[in-house]
Every structure is written in structure tokens, then in C-alpha cells.
DNA sequence: CTGTTAGCGCGTTCAT
DNA sequence: ATGAACGCGCTAACAG
């Protein structure tokens, strides 16, 4: 096979009998660049024939842009972030955008160390997924070098542009559903140590209040003893063993709940496992509802009733939003802060909830 | 805040009172570059102080290298590839390598369309994960532009350098385990349409033969009616509904198996679900064993007995292998073909297998 | 409408 | 041991 020789803009220009400037202008086609249709065609044909495309580095060196969006994801081994990332990629393809996923270098020291200057310049903008220890450092850096970013499913408390499922509404929907099923003693299980769930307790209390249900402290379980460190070998305990034990403790209490609302499907599934192990049946003896509609919710048996985050909509909104920020020149801080796209989630009824048993 | 001005090699050179050539040589430190220790220190100090690092594009424009490895993953929404990718990242960090994940643009037309020239030049080498429709086109392109690649967990049949769990051994271990538990009628469930599992049938037959167990065609279930199209909305059926139905069909047959070996944990879990729905208990009535030791296997109840792929070892081997290929100059085709790292998997006993019931 | 040219920031000869 | 200068391939500004 002939040695593959890279074809440059010079080759194209020569072969088309024009100057490189014209080639460049035709390819970067700012609307209707002033080029005769005829020569434009000629150039395009040669480009096609040689399947030429500009050297990314040379172009980026000049323009300081790459056209690539960076997705920062703290973890891929669960069943939520992976699906979100896939949805993001579908949206990117749909909108003709290039997307690359970067993973953190470690859990310690916040996400700061993950964030090398190399990556900073490689991407035109960033999508910050979910929420590791803290994105504060990352965001600070991003602001210094003036790279736009959008937080995606990282929690409603995030500063700056964000698109997020309406977590408040989600917990309300779940609570209402349980309430209408006849449940009065509803437990809530979450982890305040995960920045994403930092305010979930408030949201749940609010949901309770809206139905004039009393808040019972003994039914509010905060699994806060484990930080979000997906790279740690013990991380898995946080969302399997710990929630299972918590659920068991709940049922052994003096006045057990008839339903358990979990802040995510992973917790919910772990709960059910813990319950089954002690002979408690779901949903006959106790109902369990999750949040996110992760893949695990249909893999599990019984299939999990949960609140769905509309990933496709979240994804396309995220890409679109970042693109528009990239387009407009430098909004100022306050304008940025105002950009919030809250997507309403919806109930998905499956098998893990039922009316409470007659007592 | 002061406008952030990018610091270049010129700034460093000026501030250190040397020429840019020296700065460059000190930073790219080819072993002991001929530079006086004294000025070297001086330069390093300024570099540190200004936290300078070379402009990726300028450097790449010159050297045609970026130091970045590209991970091509067909899917992230399951529970295997995401974990593998995280392991890869850990290995990369451990070995001081930069890693970025690229996702396919679509399922159709093979993976070819995913593979833009932009990405081709952005990465020094590639890790090809698992196996979508076919990596043939991708590999062909990679060979033309002479970019090294390593197939990772993409099947033992892949051409070129690869690191893979010993799939043959895995099925042997599983079969032996079941056999020693007392099982004689072992069913096998897989999907020959997934390139990765293309030869699994042979492997299983071989395993049976090694124990002098007869091959029973009615117990060999090939879920081949669904191609591997993770982006399709119906894809999930392939590994939830279809395996479940298959398992049910198996048990309703005239001579049902006492154990089912599944080609991956997703199938296994789906099987168990199907079984439970028809009142068949696992492992009391029938044993189920999976392969991969995916996250789902510990999330599920009962926890899945399975064959573990040693992800950490696979990951560090993959990174190391690609690095060494990157290091040596252009091995030829036959040398490439010889580079195969087969990692032995191991049994993980959990809850889904037991001796067959007395009949 | 089209051609020319000046860098973007860096690595790398080739002199010294 | 160090410095000077070239050019990687491209875009954008300017001249014609």
C-alpha cells in the first residue's frame, strides 16, 4: 500500500488552481463568502476527491477553537451517567457537534487535579455531569480561562448555566403518588454527602408539607457517612450495603414505614435487596420508589417504580444551550446565572409500589 | 480579576534570560539533554512559577503527536463497558497517560462513520473496546493512517494487537463449576450476532467436551435475532425481554436444564427475572451463572455467581501494551498480529448457583 | 472576486 | 552549552 501522505490545503489549492486563501474561505463558509460559485464548485470537488479536511492543530493554533465539547463525568460505572453520556452523544450528533468524554484523574482533592490545561484548551466548552466532591475548583478555573460550561444533572444548587431535572418536582410526584396509594408513613433515604443530593432533604420535607403529612425524623435516613468517591474500592458499599442496612433498620423500628422513597434507583434497588433478605416483600409489605429511571430499574426484579429523568430532552437542551453560549460573545456573570433550564420529570409505574396493607 | 493572558514559551525564555530553544529542550528532556544543571533549574523555576505548559496545538503541529490515547467505546449505558473505561482511566493515570473517550456517531454502517479524521489525528493511539457491529472499517482506516491500536475485550477473534479475557477458559471454568456441583443438563444462552460472542458457541461446546458431557442442541440458545445497536430504543429488549423469554421456553421444554450458563451478566439477570416470573426459583430450582462480573451482578437479588474479568489487570495491560507499541517504531503486520495478551478470568461464587435438586 | 502574507507557539536543525 | 531561525498548516487581514 502506498505510503499515506497527508494532504494539505496547499495540495488542494494547487490542484484546483487557486490560492490557499480561497480554499480556506470556501471551507469555513461564513454564510455567503464572496466566492464565485464556479470556483467554489471546483474547490469543493477537489476537496471531496482528496477527502481533505483541515489539520485540526493548525486551525486551532490560529483560531483558538476546536469545535469540540468536553464532557466531564465523574463516574461511568453506574447506570445513570453512562446513559446520560450516550444521550448527550446522540444529541451532539443530531446537532452536528463533536463530543469527547474526559474522566477525573482521582477522587481526592476535589476534581481539580483532573483538570489539566491541556484539556482546557482542547475544548471549546464543557458539560459538567452530575456532581463529584465538588465542581467549585473546576468552575473557578473555567472562569479564569473564560471557557463556557453548562452543568448537567448536577443539582439545582449549581451556580452558572445549568440544565437539570426538576428535583423538587420529582420528589413531589413521588410523594404524591405514594400518598394517593394510601401511604402515610413514608421514609426517605438519601446521601447528603453527595453534592447532587445536598438539598434533597429540604425538597422531601417540602413535598410532605404540601400534602400536610408530618415529618418524622426517624424516617429520614441520611447515608452521609460515605463521600462520593467512585474510584475507591469501597465506594460500592455506599450504594449497596449501606442502603440495605438502612432499610432493614427502618423496618425493625418501632413504627416502620409503609413506603420508602429513595433518592436514586441504585439506593432503591439496594433497599429492596436488604428487605428481601429479611423476608420483607416488595411491594406487598412495603413499597419502594426510586428516582432517575436508571437502567437498573428495568433490570431488577421486581421492576422499579421510579421518577424518570427525560434524558433525551436534557441532553439536547444541554448541547443546544452550550452551543448558544458559545455563539454569543461573552455574556457577563449575571446573565450566565440566569440561564437555567429545568426539565420536568415524570412518574413511571412499574412493580415496586402498591397500596399499604390493611393494618 | 486580571484578564488571563496566555503564557507562551517566549515569556518563559525572556523571564529566565535564555532562548526558547533551551526552554523547549529542558521541558522535553530527552534523558540528559545537554543543558547546564544551573540554567535548567532556572528555567524550571520560571516554568513552575508561571505554571506554564506548552500549547498543545503548536506542539502537535510540529511533532504530530499529542500524547493522548483515544478510547473508542460503542456503548456506555450498560454495566460493563463503563466499568472497563473507568479501570482504563485509573491505569492511564497510574502510567501518566492522557485518555479521552469517543463514542460512535451511530449504529448503522458499522462504526465507520464515527471515525472522523479529526479524531484520527487527535490521538496517538486507540483502544478499541468491546465490539460493535464491526471494527473492520475502523481498523482498516487506522492501518492506512498508521495509527496504532489495541483491541480490548473485543473478542479473541480480533486481528491485530489485543488484550482479552480468556473467554475459552471462562466458559470452561463456568461449565466445570456447574458440573462439579452435579449438573449434567447445562443450557447455554448467548447472542452470535454480537461480534464479541461470535465464537462463544464453539467455546462452550469445547467446555462440554472436556467434561465428556453431550451437547444437546435444544439447550443451546442463540438470541441472534437482534444485532448490537445500543443506540436503538429497542436495543434493551435484546438483553432483557428476549433472554427472559428464552429462559422460560427452556424450562417449559420436555427436558429442562438444571443450570443455565449465560454469555454475560446482563443475560443472566434477565434470565433469572424471567424464571422468577414463572415461579421458578434460583438457585433452588435451577442454577444460573453469568460472565464478566458486571456491576449488575452484585446489585441483583439473588447476587449472581459469575466469572470475573480482571478489569484492573486488563486495563493496565492495555495501556502498557499500547504505550510500548507507540514507543517502538512501526512494527510490521506480522509482528502486530503476534501481540496477544490473554488474561485468565476467575470464578466468583455468589448466590445463583447450587447443586441440582434430587429428582 | 481573488492572491499574498503575517503570524499562531512550538520543536528542531544548524551555527556558534 | 546555548542561540537564531525555519516552518509545521492554517486563518484572517489586507491588497489588488
Structural account:
The structure is a homodimer of 359-residue chains. With 359 residues, the first copy, chain A, is an alpha/beta fold. The first copy, chain A, is built from 15 helices and twelve strands. Chain A has helices spanning 9-16, 20-27, 37-49, 56-63, 81-94, 117-122, 136-144, 167-181, 200-210, 235-238, 241-252, 265-277, 296-299, 311-327, 333-338, and strands at 68-72, 98-102, 125-129, 149-152, 162-165, 186-190, 220-222, 259-262, 287-289, 306-308, 340-343, 346-348. Chain A has a six-stranded parallel sheet with strand order 2-1-3-4-5-11, covered by helices on one side. In chain A, helix 5 packs across helix 14 (311-327). The interface between A and B is large, with 57 and 58 residues. Chain A binds a DNA duplex (16 and 16 nucleotides) through helix 2 and helix 4.
Defining traits:
homodimer, alpha/beta, Rossmann fold, 3 domains, four-stranded parallel sheet, 13% strand, DNA-binding
Quick structural gist:
The structure is a homodimer of 359-residue chains. Chain A is built from 15 helices and twelve strands. Chain A has 359 residues and is of the alpha/beta class.
The proportion of residues in beta strands of chain A is: 5-15%
- From the alpha carbons, calculate the radius of gyration of chain A and give it in angstroms: 25 Å
Average pLDDT reading of chain A: 90
What number of domains of chain A?
3
SSE order of chain A: HHHHEHEHEHEEHEHEHHEHEHEHHEE
The most extensive contact between chains is: A-B, 57 and 58 residues
Shape of chain A: elongated
Distance between the termini of chain A: 80 Å
Count of DSSP-assigned helices of chain A: 15
Quickly name the level 1 CATH class of the largest domain in chain A: Alpha Beta
Strand order, largest beta sheet of chain A = 2-1-3-4-5-11
Indicate the low-confidence ranges of chain A by residue numbers.
none
Architecture of the largest domain in chain A in CATH? 3-Layer(aba) Sandwich
Amino acid at each position: 500500500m502506498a505510503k499515506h501522505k497527508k494532504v494539505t490545503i496547499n495540495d488542494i489549492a494547487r490542484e484546483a488552481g487557486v490560492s490557499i486563501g480561497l480554499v480556506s474561505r470556501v471551507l469555513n463558509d461564513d454564510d455567503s463568502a464572496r466566492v464565485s460559485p464556479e470556483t467554489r464548485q471546483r474547490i469543493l470537488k477537489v476537496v471531496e476527491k482528496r477527502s481533505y479536511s483541515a489539520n485540526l492543530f493548525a486551525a486551532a493554533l490560529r483560531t483558538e477553537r476546536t469545535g469540540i465539547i468536553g464532557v466531564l463525568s465523574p463516574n461511568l460505572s453506574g447506570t445513570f451517567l453512562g446513559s446520560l453520556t450516550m444521550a448527550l452523544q446522540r444529541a451532539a450528533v443530531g446537532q452536528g457537534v463533536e463530543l469527547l468524554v474526559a474522566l477525573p484523574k482521582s477522587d481526592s482533592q476535589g476534581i481539580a487535579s483532573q483538570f489539566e490545561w491541556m484539556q482546557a484548551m482542547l475544548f471549546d466548552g464543557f458539560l459538567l455531569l452530575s456532581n463529584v466532591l465538588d465542581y467549585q475548583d473546576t468552575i473557578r478555573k473555567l472562569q479564569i480561562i473564560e471557557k463556557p460550561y453548562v452543568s448537567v444533572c448536577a443539582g439545582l444548587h449549581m451556580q452558572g448555566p445549568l440544565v437539570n431535572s426538576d428535583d423538587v418536582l420529582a420528589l413531589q410526584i413521588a410523594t404524591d403518588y405514594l400518598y394517593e396509594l394510601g401511604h402515610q408513613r413514608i421514609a426517605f433515604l438519601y446521601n447528603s454527602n453527595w453534592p447532587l443530593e445536598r438539598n434533597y432533604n429540604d425538597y422531601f420535607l417540602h413535598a410532605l408539607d404540601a400534602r400536610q403529612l408530618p415529618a418524622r425524623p426517624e424516617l429520614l435516613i441520611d447515608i452521609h457517612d460515605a463521600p462520593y468517591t467512585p474510584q475507591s474500592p469501597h465506594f460500592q458499599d455506599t450504594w449497596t450495603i449501606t442502603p440495605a442496612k438502612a432499610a432493614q433498620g427502618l423496618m425493625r423500628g418501632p413504627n416502620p414505614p409503609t413506603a420508602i422513597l429513595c433518592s436514586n434507583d441504585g439506593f432503591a434497588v439496594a433497599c429492596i435487596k436488604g428487605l428481601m433478605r429479611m423476608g420483607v416483600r416488595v411491594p406487598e409489605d412495603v413499597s419502594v420508589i426510586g428516582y432517575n429511571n436508571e437502567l437498573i430499574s428495568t433490570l431488577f426484579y421486581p421492576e422499579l417504580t421510579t421518577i424518570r429523568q427525560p434524558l433525551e430532552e436534557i441532553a439536547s437542551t444541554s448541547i443546544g444551550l452550550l452551543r448558544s453560549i458559545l455563539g454569543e460573545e461573552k455574556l457577563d456573570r449575571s446573565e450566565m446565572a440566569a440561564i437555567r433550564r429545568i426539565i420536568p420529570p415524570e412518574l413511571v409505574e412499574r412493580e415496586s409500589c402498591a397500596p399499604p396493607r390493611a393494618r
